[in-house]
């Protein structure tokens, strides 16, 4: 049973009036556990359902109902452009929308999610290997790929995190992150429903909202934590928490140190990806070392591989490509056997695309990514290729190269180097808005630099490393 806390036959005995607080709405545990009845009635037999993943009660009920009813969910960000949304719907084969109504349902039927206080509880029997979620994520090029996450992977990951963090039903988990990614959706919502703790979504992850929420367990991407430490009043209000967790991108050491000073907490750092879920974390009862992301979670194995395929020593200094194996891995990219085959080696190790070091105690440090074409900005993973393709669709753009440049707030900021088309002058602001509309708001370049030419090698390939300086 994936959502353990909602499985009780006698839900009244275990009811909690404020199991979830989101968007000024409070949902009780029995309302959540009854959400499956509506799904089975309206969508029984559906094999995939799209959910417009806004941070609202409708999204919580839709996801909860589907997971209880055994219907795989495709979370769709509200701000994705038309082409990307079409791709997600077509590629996933979603048969209906459940929850918030999209402006344009693209020909699919829409159903509101229903809370279940009046309904008998309905829990479908599911196989552990059944897909629970299909989350679309960027590669270096091409449209986003659908990552198939099984019920087994979700349960294994959440249980391993509960063990590492001593996460318990007494916790009040707070975050204000998007509800369509692993961090906000899987760890935040599904994790809370599995552990049985209260969950509070703050809407936006602002320092003021985090301070006001009075939680015990806070999740944030590094950008959130750097904004918290810049607000001493909000930071001081987090002293009463049990634990602050950072993940999805590298937490700068000065932000780690400022959190210790201003909140009294050395943050827990954890590392993972959409494909592998969370695989490494520091432990509540272990060392928390600035700049390091911890040790493998229960059941997870890691290895470092050199360019020639040989093993790299775990000496805290030697750098290698990080591969992971264990029960939390995804079941391949939907409709993409080629990409799935590339992602794994012959022994079932997932190639993370990250380079790392491991020390003699098994502590891991993420050094960076193998490819400059996968950018992490504010904790969002964005492929340089998808932005370049979008910009080349604008008449003012003749050539373009997109890179992630270091940024104190976002970790990396997306910068587009554009050679303007002779036919039309290129306006940076217009190009930024164009990407925000075509793809999604967080994929917009923060800066467009108009250049006369892009640096290229003798073969004509753009030398992106020359743009990073
Ligand atoms: C600005 N805005 C525009 C715009 N420019 N809108 C349209 N067109 C334009 N050109 C508006 C936005 O709509 C928004 O409005 C506001 O400006 C700010 O948007 P933003 O600049 O994008 O937000 P920002 O403050 O920079 O966001 C920082 C952030 C965000 C930390 C809140 O980056 C974030 O939520 N990151 C979390 C990513 C995450 O969860 N990743 C997990 C991946 S899973 P308005 O009205 O909306 O404010 C994973 C696995 C793991 O990685 O390990 O966890
Ligand atoms: P995503 O699929 O959006 O979850 O992105 C996964 C990528 O985020 C990883 O491959 C890493 O590059 C990066 N990442 C996640 N957590 C961390 C972390 N704690 N430190 C450094 N990088 C991280």
TrEMBL record:
InterPro entries: AMP-bd_C (IPR025110), AMP-bd_C_sf (IPR045851), AMP-binding_CS (IPR020845), AMP-dep_synth/lig_dom (IPR000873), ANL_N_sf (IPR042099). PANTHER family: ACYL-COA SYNTHETASE, ACYL-COA SYNTHETASE FAMILY MEMBER 3. Residues 386-461 form the AMP-binding enzyme C-terminal domain. It comes from the Bacteria. Signal peptide: none annotated. GO terms for molecular function: medium-chain fatty acid-CoA ligase activity. This is Acyl-CoA synthetase. The lineage of its organism: Bacteria, Bacillati, Actinomycetota, Actinomycetes, Mycobacteriales.
